[in-house]
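Lecture notes, part 5. Sequence design as translation. It can be helpful to think of inverse folding as translation between two languages: the language of shapes and the language of residues. The source text, in structure tokens, appears below.
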């Protein structure tokens, strides 16, 4: 059991805001889909063409937004963990689970090398995120492309797992620091279940196979 405390409220609020933004970007990603049959009908060549590129750019934009907020939350979580024993395990689990994204910053910020290697092929991006089979050379036979929970954020961690980690930490912060209000300071709230959830999600994230 952890006693409720009120550390630097600004730091807690900033972490919570970033986690909220992570979840919002994740939900927006999960709403993205491309109807290939409709695209083919609209394109004289019978191929999705420009609509496919637009779809990929939308996915890339949300992916970059999600990663940015995740890493900001991770940085703040590490700072708070050094000073707050009450939630150190929770913060360390989140920070550790998101370590796989640290190397992704350069990749998101500069796609030149990847574009050179693939000819700026949107299919290569879709394959790297698990939206197409690794050996898929075209979209033939597909009716639609849908972003799901198995979407690999920067080829490193499944979207669903990342959202689970963010949601678990956000819920714990709300419980421990009364972000949502409704509790009296000084009461104790058990977060053992949240610890288990975070640990399980982190373990799953670490064991998830990297994309191509």
């Amino acid at each position: 059991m952890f006693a409720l405390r009120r550390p630097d409220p600004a730091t807690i609020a900033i972490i919570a805001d970033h986690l909220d933004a992570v979840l919002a970007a994740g939900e927006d990603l999960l709403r993205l889909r491309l109807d290939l049959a409709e695209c083919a009908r609209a394109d004289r060549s019978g191929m999705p063409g420009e609509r496919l590129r637009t779809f990929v750019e939308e996915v890339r934009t949300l992916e970059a937004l999600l990663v940015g907020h995740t890493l900001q939350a991770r940085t703040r979580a590490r700072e708070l963990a050094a000073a707050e024993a009450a939630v150190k395990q929770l913060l360390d689990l989140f920070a550790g689970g998101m370590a796989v994204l640290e190397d992704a910053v350069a990749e998101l910020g500069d796609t030149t090398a990847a574009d050179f290697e693939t000819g700026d092929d949107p299919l290569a991006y879709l394959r790297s995120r698990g939206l197409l089979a690794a050996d898929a050379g075209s979209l033939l036979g597909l009716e639609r492309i849908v972003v799901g929970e198995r979407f690999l954020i920067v080829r490193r961690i499944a979207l669903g797992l990342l959202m689970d980690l963010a949601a678990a930490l956000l819920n714990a912060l709300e419980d421990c620091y009364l972000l949502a209000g409704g509790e009296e300071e000084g009461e104790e709230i058990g977060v053992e279940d949240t610890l288990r959830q975070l640990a399980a999600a982190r373990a799953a994230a670490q064991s998830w196979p990297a994309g191509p």
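The translated text above is only one of many valid answers, since several sequences can fold into similar shapes. Residues 89 and 181 are 23 Å apart (CA to CA).
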